[in-house]
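step: validate -> pass
step: tokenize input -> pass
step: predict -> running
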Amino acid sequence: KLLPADKISGFKYAGYMLYADVYRLTNENRKCLYFFEKARRQVEADSNERNKAIFYINYSLFYKNTGTFDKAEELLLKSEEIAEKYKFEDLLLAVKENKADYNVKRGNTSEAIKLYEKMIADDLYKNMFVQKVVLWAKYGDCLQIEGKLSESIKAYDKSVELIDKSDNPAVLNTIRIPVSGNKAVAYMKMNEFEQALFIIENSKLLNPY
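step: predict -> pass
step: emit ->
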């Protein structure tokens, strides 16, 4: 018995995306791009708008990793337009996060700071604890790059504060350690070496295990 057309389309799309991911992991960009384009034609012929929005986000990541930021942002815009139209709130959040990350990658940290501040003000990660911890850490990193050292320390403190409030803070040490390390670096840039040393000695940075 033949599969329905939508099932065949779904299998083809999944196969193309699988190949694209394999070649992405092996850094074979031309082959990766070939299968992304096959997947694009397949998904754009489909009527599932959510799948299209997700695809454009994934495709944008390929272009981000190859340094083609204009194309990456063009694809993010396509995803954003669909997500806004159909109220895909989780995908809108993914678009916002990727926009901020792209700006960091391009060295446009001032724009990334604005996006992170908007995400924090809107409390977009209200029900997503780990993402909120990481958001404050990324915000702190951007502030430090911009030379706003005191503000970056406050952002790192907020990230660690959230970790300490969790049910099992020890599990989040993989986040706490780099956050504390970056906070120590901020203090060193401010010539507050004693404070930096205190953080290093009390944050398991010398012996994390």
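step: describe -> Residues 104 and 193 are 28 Å apart (CA to CA).
step: cleanup -> pass
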